[in-house]
Design brief:
With 434 residues, the protein is an alpha/beta fold. 45% of the residues lie in helices and 14% in strands. Helix 1 links the parallel strand 1 and strand 2. The termini are far apart. The mean pLDDT is 96. The structure holds nicotinamide-adenine-dinucleotide. Nicotinamide-adenine-dinucleotide binds next to helix 1 and helix 5.
Length: 434
């Protein structure tokens, strides 16, 4: 099929490139001229495992980049909207990019088109987009609007696109829904075809549920610390119950990234707006924020007064395998440590170019061990595999003091203790069972 994807960020670029790889002809559009120019040269502006190769394989054959939305729409049978929907001032989703994109798409429609909204949007937006298209499209143009929320995870986005757990499609017109489902046919995923409101709700409700799951286990982990239980063991035991499941269930520094915090706030806002206020969701975000504060307290407790101390920080991105720094715990934790007088030496395998622009007053180091050199403590903020494989003896030799505060429970306390480290994780730090 001939497709276009409006918005070439984490979702749009991955979706467009993977659709091209599946055999469709795809034009990716963005208003960001520098981004488009870079993509035209074959340079992928974000870090996402496997993406660069897919872009390289398809660019100029089935995958094209442009800033001209109208031209892309005219050539496409199906137009995906994948623009950003950042948080607004009161927590609501800021939908101005979607509205702007819909206006340009509407004016460019000739004949029949299917417009698919992939951005995460407030419930009812499929109809809002329909209204905009009706008011901007020429009188003889016809179209259907379809909701197709995206569930990919940064860091494994390509894999998620080719092997999704589900494809959710919301539409008034079943034929339009089936045509969108046909785009995904090669990935052979379970497809839910439903009404637009339910499809839109699936996205928010799923993200808020996952954030709640993390906040729940974080509260349990805080109690584990008080009563001498190990939250990692607790999660293991709980996860054996298939109704609970062990996935996305780790205590630590809480959720971050461009989606979870903003989607929880947006759903909470919708609840208030429609007179069905949530009691759970404000707590989810409060606990999330509390984890970052608790970590800073833990560092102060264990390292002593931070004035003049040097702290090594491993991991800056909000999770491994991405350079996305949006809502990363590091953005709250590092300024708090600096404010307390600490000098910071940081390392992240891929996020440092992004971090440099937003986290000032930090010494960025070329390797993990270099960051650790001479530090009074090592803090782990992102659970990169590279850190897991560190030679503990070399780490101990690099640090001034063998203290590790592990915000992601990356290490086994007993293993660190055996190498002579003082170690604190989140919700554990109890005696090793041996
Ligand atoms: N990032 C994720 O993991 C993820 C996962 C699922 C869903 N989503 C949702 O998908 C949407 C996109 O997220 P993202 O992370 O890809 O955002 P992003 O910020 O990485 O990229 C969005 C892109 O849209 C472009 N853009 C904005 N307005 C435009 C317009 N009018 N015309 C053309 N381009 C325009 C921006 O320049 C930017 O390049 C959001 O609604 C988000 O909530 C994101």
């Amino acid at each position: 099929m001939k497709l276009s994807v409006i918005g070439t960020g984490y979702v749009g670029l991955v979706t467009g490139s993977c659709f091209a790889d599946l055999g469709h002809q795809v034009t990716c559009v963005d208003v960001d001229k520098a981004k488009v120019a870079s993509l035209k040269r074959g340079k992928v502006p974000i870090y996402e495992p496997g993406l660069e190769e897919i872009v390289r394989r398809n660019r100029g054959r089935r995958l094209f980049f442009t800033t001209d939305t109208a031209a892309a729409v005219r050539e496409s049978e199906v137009v995906f909207i994948a623009v950003s929907t950042p948080p607004g001032a009161s927590g609501e989703a800021d939908i101005r990019n979607v509205i702007q994109a819909a206006k340009v798409i509407g004016a460019a429609i000739r004949g029949y088109k299917i417009i698919v909204n992939k951005s995460t949007v407030p419930i009812g937006m499929t109809h809002v987009v329909g209204d905009i298209l009706r008011s901007t499209a020429p009188p003889d143009a016809t179209f259907d609007v379809v909701s197709n929320p995206e569930f990919l995870r940064e860091g494994s986005a390509v894999q998620d696109l080719f092997k999704p757990d589900r494809v959710v499609i919301g539409a008034e017109n079943r034929d339009a829904a089936l045509r969108v489902a046909a785009i995904y046919k090669p990935v052979n995923a379970p497809v839910l075809i439903t009404d637009p409101e339910s499809a839109e709700m699936v996205k928010y409700a799923s993200n808020a549920f996952l954030a709640a799951k993390i906040s729940y286990i974080n509260e349990i982990s805080n109690l584990c610390e008080k009563v001498g239980a190990d939250v990692v063991q607790v999660v293991k035991g709980m996860g054996m119950d298939p109704r609970i499941g062990g996935q996305f269930f780790n205590a630590g520094l809480g959720v971050g990234g461009s989606c979870f915090p903003k989607d929880v706030m947006a759903l909470n806002h919708l609840g208030k707006r429609y007179g069905a206020p949530f009691k759970i969701l404000p707590g989810v975000m409060e606990v999330n924020h509390g984890q970052r504060l608790a970590f800073v307290r833990k560092v102060k407790d264990l390292a002593g007064p931070l004035k003049g101390k040097t702290l090594a920080v491993w991991g800056l991105a909000f999770k491994p395998n991405t350079d996305d720094m949006r809502e990363a715990p590091s953005l709250e934790i590092l300024p708090a440590l600096r404010k307390a007088g600490a000098k910071l030496r940081a390392y992240d395998p891929v996020a440092m170019p992004v971090a440099r622009k937003i986290l000032k007053g930090v010494t960025y180091c070329a390797t993990a061990l270099e960051a650790a050199r001479g530090a009074d403590a090592l803090l782990i903020l992102t659970e990169w595999n590279e850190f897991k494989e560190t030679d503990l003896e070399r780490l101990k030799a690099a640090l001034k003091r063998p203290l590790v505060v592990d915000g992601r429970n990356l290490y086994e306390p007993a293993a660190l203790a055996a190498h002579g480290f003082t170690y604190a994780g989140m919700g554990r730090g109890v005696r090793p069972i041996g």
